[in-house]
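Support request from a user on the community tier.

User writes: "When I paste my structure tokens into the form, the page sometimes reloads and wipes my input. The last time it worked, I copied everything first. Here is what I submitted, just in case something in the input itself triggers the reload:"
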């Protein structure tokens, strides 16, 4: 079947909506504000109970083929789960492990035996994965990772994806970070024995999936921030009226809605493009990361303005979303990085006589 024959449905299917509902129910219980704050109060990391529940539900295997022990779904279903993870600022190594197990499953299918032995432990949640998207970048959950994947350069300058097992006594130390709902660590690849998992195509695939994955988390966080702003605007009374009745507040909330819906469109288009094997998947993924990084920043700023002084306090949950978004905005490339990537992708198309539209 050609790609043109595949419909791009702008609505989630009944199964995808059921998946979202189930994910939201689990996270409402196991990633409530109280549970998230318990992780934050001990300095970051992750909630072991939440992580085990995700594993029992098979979340890590959402994109892994059934023949390899996964659910055999796709990138759209993964985006559904990641949106809910962002909506609940869930303290669990879901995205990092999801990216790692997906790359390892693809490498295993290509004949890399080393990769095969890591797929089942990651799908079951017995192991944790981390991904270094470029040499100078820290990795989410590297301090707890059993296996680390990294995008590097071969001796001839060609992009390559490598993997390494990390013994417990050689895991990197947890680094101070603004976002205390997740761990962050710097990886010294030179001290680990590495295995080559793929070349430039594997790196590009990892970049696309990482960009869309972080965009989906920002979408979830931005959607929840909009809800918090609207709730506060209805409840907060000033000069005898709810502040939501003032035009300036209405404009703020309307602009937030436009941004969130733009994030939704770009994320799910990027996820669909990856699932469908669209040749423009890289363009869609970078577009999603550019829009979500910029829009997320605007949404969080507007949400703070609607809340006023209370939004800046440690006691209010908004700061958890703000800090989470700031880390997502720069993970797997910030907006400037992906604008440059888009320019390079579209330049080659123009030079070959194609259209950028």
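"...and here is what came back when it finally went through:"
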């Amino acid at each position: 079947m050609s790609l043109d024959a595949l419909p791009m449905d702008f609505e989630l299917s009944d199964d995808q909506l059921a998946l979202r509902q189930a994910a939201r129910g689990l996270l409402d219980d196991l990633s409530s504000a109280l549970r998230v704050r318990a992780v934050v109060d001990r300095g970051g990391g992750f909630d072991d109970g939440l992580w085990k529940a995700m594993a029992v539900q098979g979340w890590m295997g959402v994109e892994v083929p059934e023949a390899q022990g996964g659910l055999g779904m796709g990138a759209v279903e993964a985006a559904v789960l990641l949106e809910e993870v962002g909506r609940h600022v869930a303290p669990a190594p879901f995205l990092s492990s999801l990216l790692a197990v997906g790359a390892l499953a693809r490498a295993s299918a290509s004949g890399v035996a080393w990769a095969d032995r890591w797929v089942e432990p990651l799908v079951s949640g017995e192991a944790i994965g981390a991904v270094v998207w470029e040499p100078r970048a820290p990795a989410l959950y590297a301090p707890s990772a059993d296996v680390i994947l990294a995008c590097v350069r071969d001796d001839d300058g060609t992009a390559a994806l490598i993997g390494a097992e990390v013994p417990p006594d050689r895991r990197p130390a947890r680094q101070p970070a603004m976002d205390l709902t997740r761990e962050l660590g710097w990886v010294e690849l030179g001290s680990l024995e590495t295995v080559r998992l793929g070349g430039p195509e594997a790196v590009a695939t990892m970049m696309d999936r990482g960009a869309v994955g972080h965009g989906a988390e920002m979408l979830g966080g931005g959607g929840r921030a909009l809800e918090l702003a609207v709730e506060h605007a209805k409840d907060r009374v000033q000069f005898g009226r709810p502040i939501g009745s003032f035009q300036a507040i209405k404009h703020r909330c309307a602009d937030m809605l436009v941004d969130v819906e733009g994030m939704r469109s770009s994320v799910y288009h990027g996820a669909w493009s990856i699932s469908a094997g669209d040749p423009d998947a890289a363009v869609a993924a970078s577009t999603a990361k550019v829009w979500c990084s910029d829009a997320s920043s605007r949404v969080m700023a507007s949400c703070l303005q609607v809340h006023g002084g209370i939004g800046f306090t440690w006691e209010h949950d908004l700061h958890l979303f703000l800090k989470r978004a700031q880390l997502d905005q720069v993970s797997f490339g910030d907006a400037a990085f992906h604008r440059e990537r888009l320019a390079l992708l579209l330049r080659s198309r123009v030079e070959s006589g194609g259209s950028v539209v």
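Agent notes: The reload is a front-end session timeout and is unrelated to the input. The chain has a mean pLDDT of 92. Residues 86 and 264 are 13 Å apart (CA to CA). Escalated to web team.
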